[in-house]
Structure to design on (225 residues):
């Protein structure tokens, strides 16, 4: 009786349809599994795992800061070089201005006029130009007295060597050194510096011509004693 019942169930259309549906599902899963892998197809970067080493991280940081330090040093050197060029340019301009002032204006103003111009500039607070005017007045006095005649190529150093042979060289040396500091260095003029130059100029004006009676011929002709 049971065998007849089992045979009937297998021959039943519903059972056969269920079996067909099950086999169809299994076939479909098999077909789909051929196109969908179990694991995603991603590149294998496991060989880069050594980059996670603490030593590599430390080395990378050292290299980074070395590069930063190099760039900072290079930038600083470039700025210093440009600053040096600019400073040299300013000094050259000041030197050229001083030479033009010496060659052109010295023949136009008397020592008294230079002193008056210096006073006016000092009252305006322009102590640098005031000191330079006293310097120009000193050169004019040396020329007018026949002590050291104007010579365009003569430098402050040469003037300094020549005035050493004078009876009172100190006031001349003060004005010469002041001119060098103001024109060829970063020194700034002040009211105190102007007072020193003014006192030196006053001493030069008070010097009597007879004090230079000996040995002036060689100096006046432009030759060193």
């Amino acid at each position: 009786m049971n065998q007849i019942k089992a045979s009937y169930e297998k021959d039943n259309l519903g059972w056969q349809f269920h079996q067909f549906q099950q086999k169809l599902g299994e076939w479909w899963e098999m077909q789909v599994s051929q196109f969908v892998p179990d694991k995603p197809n991603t590149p294998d970067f496991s060989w880069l795992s050594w980059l996670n080493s603490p030593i590599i991280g430390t080395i990378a940081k050292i290299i980074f800061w070395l590069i930063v330090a190099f760039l900072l040093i290079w930038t600083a050197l470039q700025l210093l070089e440009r600053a040096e060029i600019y400073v040299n340019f300013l000094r050259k301009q000041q030197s050229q201005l001083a030479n033009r002032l010496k060659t052109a204006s010295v023949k136009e103003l008397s020592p008294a006029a230079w002193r008056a111009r210096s006073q006016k500039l000092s009252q305006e607070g322009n102590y640098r130009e005031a000191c330079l005017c006293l310097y120009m007045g000193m050169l004019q006095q040396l020329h007018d007295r026949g002590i050291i005649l104007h010579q365009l190529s003569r430098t402050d150093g040469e003037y300094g060597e020549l005035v050493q042979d004078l009876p009172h060289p100190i006031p001349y040396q003060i004005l010469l050194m002041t001119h060098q500091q103001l024109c060829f260095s970063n020194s700034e003029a002040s009211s105190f510096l102007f007072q020193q130059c003014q006192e030196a100029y006053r001493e030069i004006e008070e010097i009597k011509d007879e004090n230079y009676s000996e040995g002036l011929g060689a100096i006046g002709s432009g030759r060193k004693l």
User: Anything to note?
Assistant: The longest helix spans residues 54-104. DSSP finds nine helices and no strands in the chain.
